[in-house]
């Protein structure tokens, strides 16, 4: 799978669990951290964990190695490392506070398909 296909898979998995405002940011040429960020949020810790679990399960089912997951226990801002794709699953309050889309405002937004 390409990095974009992995980002799309993660975005769709998030949407399956009713994640809000799912956005894919194309960071190629802007960052050495990753080629894509997938950003979304849930309205509760339980929903954040459900979104993360479904992304992880969907990735593994597609043969994608999940390299790491950070912040799961607190479920306020969880990172899922899929290699060149990093998924940020926020609790609504943290997403509003950190507003990483503003930090990466030069990154083109890719439509979730």
TrEMBL record:
Gene3D superfamilies: Beta Polymerase, domain 2
Main location: cytoplasm
Signal sequence residues: none
GO cellular component terms, semicolon-separated: cytoplasm
Transmembrane segments: none
InterPro entries in UniProt: Iojap/RsfS/C7orf30, NT_sf
One BP annotation, GO: negative regulation of translation
Keywords: Cytoplasm, Repressor, Translation regulation
Keyword check for NAD: no
Localisation: Cytoplasm
A GO molecular-function annotation: ribosomal large subunit binding
Cited Pfam families: RsfS
Subunit structure of this chain's protein: Interacts with ribosomal protein uL14 (rplN).
Free-text function comment from the UniProt entry: Functions as a ribosomal silencing factor. Interacts with ribosomal protein uL14 (rplN), blocking formation of intersubunit bridge B8. Prevents association of the 30S and 50S ribosomal subunits and the formation of functional ribosomes, thus repressing translation.
HAMAP family in UniProt: Iojap_RsfS
Family indicated by similarity: Belongs to the Iojap/RsfS family.
Protein name: Ribosomal silencing factor RsfS
Taxonomic lineage: Bacteria, Bacillati, Bacillota, Bacilli, Bacillales
Name of the gene encoding the protein in the UniProt record: rsfS
